[in-house]
Design brief:
The chain is α/β, with parallel strands linked by helices. It has two domains: about 180 residues, Quinone Oxidoreductase, Chain A, domain 1 (Alpha-Beta Complex), CATH 3.90.180.10; about 140 residues, NAD(P)-binding Rossmann-like Domain (Rossmann fold, 3-Layer(aba) Sandwich). About 30% of the residues lie in helices and about 30% in strands. The strands form five sheets. Strands 3, 7, 8, 11, 12, 19 and 20 form a seven-stranded mixed β-sheet that branches. The relative contact order is 0.15. The model has no long low-confidence stretch (mean pLDDT about 95).
Length: about 350
């Protein structure tokens, strides 16, 4: 079977390897059909790291994926060969203190697909994963849409942490795939007014298609002032989805006293500073987001029920043989790309 590897900075090689096989009763053998190019994948591709997580070459890659069940272990009862599934790429141990507290996403022994020194990446013709990481999708959900379940779960989880109330005024800074996932899930959760910002107008156009009530580009206008004109009492929640450290202080200024800043994006640096006096005077809450926790099934239901439509996010498709082109496109933000999919 074919497997993709990072072999150096901005270099990907396709290699041939034996097909994996089921070893445990709760294993599932999947044929991988689609893999999304995620911003974290691009960090590894272009920089060789995310914080202290360093790539050791050669390294497999990818985690946003959808596939078809080929074979199931004896303990797997909810799936059968031919079932189409969305995949949770986080493989928790189930027995550490975090797992026992219901925090599988901060499992002490977590193995994440495509993460350095953890589980094998998803860009391969076949992969074996635990059955609990696979969620069946109905015929109403295409394989393309099933691939988007993973980023959408992060949006769903962030919105749950934000505890949005009816009528909430919500800021979303950054409208890449994660920001758009947050937007879609916020709109599905409550009746709220959303203010979305991005440095790329093409992404703001997609945000409008996904239901944003107001959009603005900091390169062409003072978005803080414009939002303040619309909302004199300021915003209840701001979800920072760009990863840009400069957005933290901006978000604090946008928030009403008692408001919440939800940190969803991954900064490119280790240290991020903020104005502690603004935080103190407004008594703001800062909430970090670590991927998602038990959000795959509810996100699948939202999609199956038609309550979210992420199709505007899908902008590009590539065959596996052109995976480097896909990564270069996403890394350089070219051609209006939002989400590129690798078709296996």
């Amino acid at each position: 079977m074919r497997v993709a590897y990072f072999t150096a900075l901005r270099e990907i090689e396709i290699r041939e390897e034996p097909q994996p096989s089921i070893e445990k009763p709760d294993d599932v053998l999947l044929q991988i059909n689609r893999v999304g190019v995620c911003g974290s994948d691009v960090h590894y591709y272009a920089h060789g790291c995310i914080g202290d997580q360093l790539v050791e070459y050669p390294a497999t890659l990818g985690h946003e994926c959808a596939g078809t069940v080929v074979e199931v272990g004896s303990a797997v009862k909810h799936l059968s060969p031919g079932t189409r599934v969305a995949v949770d790429p986080a493989i928790s141990c189930g027995h550490c203190d975090q797992c026992k507290k219901g925090r599988e996403h901060t499992c002490r022994n977590l193995q994440f697909m495509g993460c350095p020194k953890e589980a094998p990446g998803a860009v391969a013709d076949y992969r074996v994963v635990p059955g609990r990481c696979c969620a069946a999708v109905s015929d109403s959900v295409s394989l393309d849409m099933a691939t988007l379940i993973e980023p959408l779960t992060i949006g769903y989880y962030a919105v749950q942490l934000a505890k949005l109330k009816e009528g909430a005024k919500v800021g979303i800074l950054g409208t890449g795939p994660i920001g758009l996932s947050v937007l879609l899930c916020a709109k599905a959760a409550v009746s709220c007014t959303t203010y979305a910002t991005d440095l790329l107008d093409c992404r703001l156009d997609v945000a409008k298609a996904c239901g944003a009530d107001w959009t603005g580009n900091p390169n062409s206008e003072d978005v803080e002032a414009a939002i303040a004109d619309e909302e004199p009492l300021a915003l209840d929640v701001v979800l920072e989805c760009s990863g840009d450290p400069a957005c933290v202080d901006s978000a604090q200024r946008m928030l009403t006293p008692g408001g919440m800043l939800v940190m969803v994006g991954i900064p490119p640096v280790t240290d991020v500073s903020f104005n502690s006096h603004v935080m103190r005077r407004k008594e703001l809450v800062h909430q970090a987001v670590r991927r998602q926790n038990a959000c795959v099934e509810p996100t699948v239901r939202l999609m199956e029920e038609g309550r979210i439509d992420p199709s505007p996010m899908l902008t590009h498709h590539f065959p596996l043989e052109k995976i480097t082109e896909a990564f270069e496109l996403v890394a350089d933000y070219r051609d209006g790309v939002v989400k590129a999919l690798i078709e296996m």
